[in-house]
Write a structure and sequence with these properties.
single chain, alpha/beta, Rossmann fold, 2 domains, six-stranded mixed beta sheet, elongated, binds adenosine-5'-diphosphate
Amino acid sequence: MQQPYAITKEDLGFSRIISIIFRSTWIHFPWIMVGLLALAFFSGTLQAAAPKILQVIIDLLVKGNGWQVQGFWKLLIAYGLCLLGGAIFKFGASKISFYLATQVEDKWRYAALRHYHELPFAWHDQHDSGEVGSRIDKGGSAVFVIIHELIGQNIFVSFLILAIIIVYTIVMYPSFALVLLFPIPLYIIITYIISQKIAAGQAHLNVLSEIANRTLYDGVANVRTVKAFGKEKEETKNYATKWSGYHLYEYGIERLWLIQDFLQSTIEISMRTIVLGYCAYTTYNGSISIGELTLIMSYQQMTFAPLVQLNSLFTRLRRNVKRISHLFEIIAEEDALHDKPNAVNIKPLQKEITVKKMHFEYSGRIAALHGLNLRIPAGKTTALVGRSGAGKSTLALLLMRFYDPEEGSIMWDNTDLRQIKRASLRKKVAWIPQDTSLFNRTIKENIAYGKQNVTQEEVEEAAQLAHAHDFILQTPNGYSSVIGERGVRLSGGQRQRIAIARALLTKPSLLIMDESTSHLDSETEKAISDSIRELHHKTTQLIIAHRLSTILHADQIVVLDKGRIVAVGKHEDLLKNPVYKRLYLMQFHRDE
Ligand code: ADP
């Protein structure tokens, strides 16, 4: 089976996107697709047949012997059934296409979201999460629109009827065909030219809307800072300037729509008048009957139905394909840190992690870490200290393989991190980041996040270890309390303790704490640190600290400065090192 979700950067063009969407629909739901096409075909054929029956009925009536003619009632019933059947099949096609469209939409949404989560940090560094969320949302909806609204519901049936009418008129009434079909190319050309302009304008309009929305969400997300600085009015003003710019541009596009509508109506009205005149003339000279006149007028009406949709079809198709292309861009991104084919599962750390001649730089920027050599012994506590920007967090991120080093390697016992299955590494390493990110879910869900099928006892044990149990019981619903966006209903220290409990629950082999006790008082912090050591004596701890008071007990302290290791040792030994001594003096003996 072809893999419909393996999108590459070559697949972002208009026709490729349409073909991929339909290929994925066909691959996953072939029978539903066949059913949909069959229903649409029956509906179109019946709708096109009804005027033909009407023609026969009218001709019978005009001849004055309608009621008496044998089979008249049958014709009347057939006419009704044709219309009713056409409507029922259309209803069925519409229902199926709705289901089909939602199913395909979901597949693409999930494919994009899954790939998004798998992409490495280097990619996330460059992309705004809100923008990615909106791309997945709009792209998913666009898949639905293309399958259901554009193809399933309207366009397919209408164009099928048009095709039937074209063939029938050319065969039966060649001279009328010319008049009837003449406006079609004209209509298409005008629609195409104007809709090109509308699409270009629409693309710019999207950019303006994104800019305005970014301002809006930025202000909303930082509401506390806005209020703290008394910037409420400015935030609204800022947004208003951008949003009114959007509207101003939108008026221009609206004008184009109106011009397009007007030109189309002019063509339609002129053609209707011409066809009616021609029909009247040919009826008068006896070339066609009154019934045929009705047939031609009905067919003319029906040919305009899909054409009227053309204007919105072009622009909507382009707009929605563009949205899908933004979603595809996410899937097309290469996961540079994907597992190697021969990747292995790792075992708990036995001896040590060794960093060898490691060099790393963030994309295109100056090096963050230079030629690092370091041993992190298993079961011990290693502390990383250094000024802000020294590279401490970067080293921690590399140890979790959120990035790969440019040069050199990191060995987990004897295995290079690049040879390890990512999922197995994540199970062995727990990370408490500097900026505790909690979910707007219950306390229990937050603590249990890193492990599946967790019992209440396990959650409480981890909470006790993190000295969080007591305050959790004091929250309105205990472990079932929902903590608000990013844990807003908790204090900084409480958030950190939840994050610590979450990490401890997974019983990690390596526990990385990135300044994660900064909001705790020294006593709590020491108690947590001791209990981690006692209970998980096999856990290797890597503590990134600004406050030296928290790491004086560490088995080894690594001093980083401007991306280089300048000293490694115990606290007493390091006092000889100027960088460490300066950090120490700044914190403990300000007056010295
Ligand atoms: P520390 O944790 O010691 O404060 P970091 O490891 O966060 O320092 O940063 C080391 C250097 O890398 C700094 O110069 C910082 O500006 C840069 N840096 C950190 N994160 C990124 C990133 N995501 N993209 C680009 N540069 C970064």
